[in-house]
Amino acid sequence: MAEAVVITQPGRVELSEVALPDLGPGQLRLRTRVSLISTGTEGIVYTGRFAPGTHWDQWFSYPHRPGYSLVGEVSDVGRDVTGAFRPGDRVVALLGHASHHVADANLCTLVPDDVSDEDAAWFALAKVGFVGMEAAHARVGSSALVIGVGPVGQMAVRWLAASGAAEVTVAHRSGGFRLDLARAGGATAALQDDLADGLPGLPAPAAVIDCTGNPDVLTRALAAVADHGRVVILGDVGDPSQQRLSHDLIVRGLTVVGAHGRHLLGEREHDIRRLFFRLVASGRFAGMSGLVTHKFTPHECAEAYALLDAGRSDTMGVIFDWQ
């Protein structure tokens, strides 16, 4: 048996015993060390704030086992697993918040010794940020605006900086420590602004990455980007029908593209995880210190999700410590 976090219905979460399958060929048995809450996605599922008929409605039903950013320790190795994995190894995998897992070995990636559990736990949101950076066509010397510097926005900022972007501006309406973390991660300018009146006093960037999940932001992103620029929708909205296009799209020849973690799969996903670990270990993925703001034991899961519902803007990385 294992213990798992379960959202039983909107607004209610508990730690429950769940069955653990037998170890099969090509699989690993894992003991969880830490797991990172995806505050945007899991917040929407926890509150049930998504519209009927949307992709959210198709993906999730209750009871639901949330989570997809887990660092585990290999406790046993199944038959036919290659020598890449041994008991005691640390791995990351897209698995839910639970004390133990049995997972296919080909879905797991080794964590290097010089990367901490807390830093490694960002691998899944780092992938989302990478997809956004790639969709923005970032390159050496380019410019970009990141709107919303929650967990995904923080990862997008760091990828942009690592890619050699010359100007990385961030905007976040609540400002405060989130802007400070973005500066530490490579942002060259930071605005406490919701951009309702445009981008104040700064050149229009070649790309805008909307990480907010707020449907009102799309028209502001379209207004802020340079002519013939790209707007990347990276924050997933609970009700996409509330998003609106503006005249900027046609008049100024803009490109709007959606980006999602599901766009990066297979061996390339492992490659990006390994690249993330190398950049973190070398210090080139800057400003990781301070990204984890809250830690909870799994038995405190109700308190963790209540915090995200009532005061998400006061959090950044929220971790379950299973050790």
If you had to describe this structure to a student in words, what would you say it looks like?
The protein is built from ten helices and 15 strands. The chain has 323 residues and is an alpha/beta fold. The chain folds into two domains: 152 residues, Medium-chain alcohol dehydrogenases, catalytic domain (Quinone Oxidoreductase, Chain A, domain 1); 134 residues, NAD(P)-binding Rossmann-like Domain (Rossmann fold). The strands form three sheets. Strands 3, 4, 5, 6, 7, 14 and 15 form a seven-stranded mixed beta sheet that branches. The chain has a six-stranded parallel beta sheet with strand order 10-9-8-11-12-13, with helices on both faces. Strand 11, helix 7 and strand 12 form a beta-alpha-beta unit. Helix 4 crosses helix 5. The longest helix is centred in the last third of the chain and has 16 residues. The two termini are 17 Å apart. The relative contact order is 0.16. It comes from Actinopolymorpha pittospori.
Would you spell out the secondary-structure blueprint of this structure?
Blueprint: E1 2-9, E2 12-18, E3 27-37, H1 39-47, H2 55-59, E4 70-77, E5 90-93, E6 100-104, E7 109-110, H3 117-120, H4 123-135, E8 143-147, H5 151-163, E9 167-171, H6 177-184, E10 189-191, E11 207-210, H7 217-224, E12 230-233, H8 248-251, E13 255-258, H9 267-282, E14 292-296, H10 301-311, E15 317-321
Parallel strand pairs: 8-9, 8-11, 9-10, 11-12, 12-13, 14-15
Antiparallel strand pairs: 1-2, 3-4, 3-6, 3-15, 4-5, 5-7
Helix pairs in contact: 4-5, 4-9
GO molecular function: metal ion binding; oxidoreductase activity
Keywords: Metal-binding, Oxidoreductase, Zinc
Pfam family, one: ADH_N
